[in-house]
Amino acid sequence: MSTLRFYAIKETLNRKPVVIEEKERRSNLFGKNVFNEHAMRQYLTKEAYNAVMNAHEFGAKIPRELADHISTGMKEWAISKGVTHYTHWFQPLTGATAEKHDAFFETTSNGLAIEKFGGGQLVQQEPDASSFPSGGIRNTFEARGYTAWDPTSPAFIIGTTLCIPTVFVSYTGEALDYKTPLLRALSAVDDAATAVAKYFDKSVTKVQATLGWEQEYFLIDSALATSRPDLMMTGRTLLGHTSAKGQQLEDHYFGSIPSRVLNYMRDMERECMLLGIPVKTRHNEVAPNQFELAPIFEESNLAVDHNSLLMDVMGKVAERHNFVVLFHEKPFKGVNGSGKHNNWSLATNTGVNLLGPGNTPMSNLQFLTFFINTIKAVESYEELIRASIASASNDHRLGANEAPPAIISVFIGEQLTKVLDNLEHVTKGKLSPEEKTDLKLNVVGKIPEILLDNTDRNRTSPFAFTGNKFEFRAVGSKANCANPMTVLNTIVAKQLVEFKTAVDTLIEEKKMKKDDAIFNVLREYIKDSKRILFEGDGYGEAWEKEAKKRKLSNYKTTPEALKAKISKKAITLFEEMRIMNKVESKARYEIEVEDYTKRIQIEGRVLGDIARNHVIPTAIKYQSVLVNNVKGLKEIYGNGFTKMAEQQLEIIEAISEHIEKINEGVTEMTEERKKANNMNDIEKTANAYCENVKPLFDVIRYHCDKLELLVDDELWPLTKYRELLFTK
Ligand code: ADP
Ligand code: MG
């Protein structure tokens, strides 16, 4: 009997839900472990408090002399909650979060000890961080990257550690993390959107990009997960025959949540409350053992931090409940994968959602302005949007007919399509009073009603307007949202700058009225953006053909898709908008290309190992059983055995054939890996992994999965899909 597998199943069957007591209201718990306004008022002097708030609201620099006050206040607050250590918390380009803990504890010359946390330690640190990816920006010789406090995201406590959100940059100022370019992009979109919003309301002084992510994930019992080396090493199953029952009965989606899972969710949500992550919804997703949670949306930088933090917390809480959380985009073949929809909008400091309807024609013209500019931005930079969500794991999902396709398009619904059709025919130049009245009454004026009724949702669209926000659905479940959000906010910023210039030119040079000028510019944008609008079935072959005609990109693999990041267009965009210089753009590209290679390389090694060291030996063991059986039959029945052994002989032969194919496949894959590794050019290596190594996974898997169906269940060492996905 295969010991580990059956031991794991037994463990799982004996599990009881972990008891979770919720004594306090969640609203009371909310933000308790966050150095938020409430805590700051208690622990900071008025000057220090104002300095942090100014930095938070207006990006003002914190005077050095106040940093000491702030750090001392922060330390006192943290110690009052049992904290002993602090860390700069950052998001290097590995995709995970990073922390290096230091104790507050310090000795003094007289042999005594104190707790200390100076302003310098709060503001800037130099972790020995030479092992993070830098894309050649720092060679290890010049390994000095430093972390710097981001006062726009509040410090928080995990366990006994005070975590201070920071950016991570090289000694020469280049970004080495996800947060730095995001902050720059958010500032760019703030400037550009504020300038445009002022056309409609002079009192707008700030625009924030908002983000509400929806996190999908799988929960697998930890004993079962540990019995699968592929899950543990790569986050996905590299082989395994699909279970007879998968998601075809559609009985999991929104079904009643199993008790063990529900208690996990409650425990995790409680942690989220303490950390100020405003989680709100939870439900079963489509695939068995797949779930989703979503928070109330927040300012984007905070929302990105909260998502990174959440993924970390989810993993930690899962341990207490004997679960492993899988964030991989496609952990199991044959059932749905996971995504992370990024709901995005723009909100003014006056409390207006710029992508929401208003009650006056003017506020609806404002809505249309931001709506159409976003569409135009996506149209102009569709390749960059595609590149922003490219990864080895998301390749399994995009275009796999269950998730958005690899072709980027925008869905806006029938009603708004009609509105754009009307606007497209607005007269060139000044509008007659009659035309304006008609537009205001019948087109712009009807928008609130239209949006309320915007219920036709197209799940196959990668970028859909959903009533008061855009929903970027192609983002991977494992991804750091900062990457796609940096791109989206940058391209919208760039687009709004262009829009403002165009409108101002018409006002100044053609002496047009403001609304005439806006209508004129929007009309041209509608014409220009048509190719990106698509309302049909994004999974269909017809769309692939149509998209090709429209000259939309359709990059199915990461190495292809990533190239857009170093196109002249992209580099210029990021330089112009002051998000990243050329060195930074190139470095990021290299890191992502190499990440792709490494992930496929690891998968290849693990698959080779499992195929040769688990599957083949097991198949041989079972084959020997059959061979002995046949021998026995021959011994007893002499020549008459052939009829009786017919089926056994067939299986014996089939096993040999599969073993042969698996062994050949692994040998070939290893050869291809060697070739790829020796190419000395990261792009060529990545392509070789994509085109020559990865396809062999399917061949090897096919034969392993066939053997799974032939070999005695008791001997099979790898926990099966039906056990992984259905044992509660
Ligand atoms: P659904 O679209 O699933 O019916 P909602 O419209 O309530 O549900 O919201 C879905 C997600 O969109 C939630 O995570 C929510 O926080 C987010 N969201 C709603 N409004 C905005 C907004 N203005 N900006 C960013 N995210 C938003
Ligand atoms: Mg969902």
TrEMBL record:
GO terms for molecular function: glutamine synthetase activity. Residues 84-173 form the GS beta-grasp domain. InterPro entries: Gln-synt_C, Gln_synt_N, Gln_synth/guanido_kin_cat_dom, Gln_synth_cat_dom, Gln_synth_gly_rich_site, GS_Type-3, GSIII_N. It holds the Pfam family Gln-synt_C-ter. Residues 178-615 form the GS catalytic domain. SUPFAM superfamilies: Glutamine synthetase/guanido kinase. One of its GO terms (biological process) is glutamine biosynthetic process. Belongs to the glutamine synthetase family. PANTHER family: GLUTAMINE SYNTHETASE, TYPE-3 GLUTAMINE SYNTHETASE. This is Glutamine synthetase. It comes from Planktosalinus lacus.
